[in-house]
């Protein structure tokens, strides 16, 4: 039997409305989220540097996960993009604020910049919709 992919819709659905991107898809019991930055619903990157952007980014991800029937405790994989590896320790601190053990698998990549020029970080996640992450 074929598996359907259902677009995850948030309210407001800012990413879809402003950029034409789905926030994510639920395929069976797995959620695949688009890369999220620290952009607020106003379309602006959160002021205050890396930590402020990371916290806004996690709030965005949390909202999308909830809309898809999941939460941060069910994230199994992250791909993190930063504009400089100087933010590595800041990224580790942000992960520790938002994730609980067991921590998800992850990759950290340095990029030159994002579509939103003021963005310092972007995060993609894969999460379970049902079930638990066991350590």
Could you characterize the architecture of this molecule?
This protein has 135 residues and is α+β, with helices and mostly antiparallel strands. It has a single domain, classed as 60s Ribosomal Protein L30, Chain: A. It is built from 3 helices and 6 strands. The protein has a 6-stranded mixed beta sheet, with helices on one face. Helix 2 crosses helix 3. The chain is globular and about 45 Å long. The termini are far apart.
CATH class categorisation: Alpha Beta
Can you write the helix and strand succession as a string? EHEEHEHEE
Terminus-to-terminus distance: 31 Å
Average pLDDT rating? 93
Keywords:
135 residues; alpha+beta; 60s Ribosomal Protein L30, Chain: A; 6 strands; 26% helix; 24% strand
Secondary-structure map with pairings?
Blueprint: E1 5-7, H1 14-19, E2 24-27, E3 30-33, H2 50-67, E4 75-82, H3 88-98, E5 105-110, E6 121-128
Parallel strand pairs: 4-5
Antiparallel strand pairs: 1-2, 2-3, 3-6, 4-6
A few lines on this structure:
The chain has 135 residues and is α+β, with helices and mostly antiparallel strands.
């Amino acid at each position: 039997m074929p598996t359907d992919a259902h677009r995850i819709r948030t309210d407001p659905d800012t990413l879809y409305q402003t950029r034409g991107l789905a926030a994510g898809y639920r395929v069976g019991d797995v959620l695949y989220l688009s890369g999220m930055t620290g952009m607020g619903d106003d379309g602006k990157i959160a002021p205050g540097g890396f930590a402020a952007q990371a916290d806004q980014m996690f709030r965005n991800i949390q909202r999308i996960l909830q809309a898809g029937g999941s939460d941060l405790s069910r994230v199994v994989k992250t791909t993190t993009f930063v504009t400089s590896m100087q933010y590595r320790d800041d990224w580790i601190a942000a992960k520790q604020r938002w994730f609980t053990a067991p921590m998800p698998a992850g990759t950290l990549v340095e990029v030159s910049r994002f579509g939103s020029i003021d963005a310092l970080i972007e995060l993609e996640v894969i999460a379970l919709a049902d079930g638990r992450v066991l350590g």
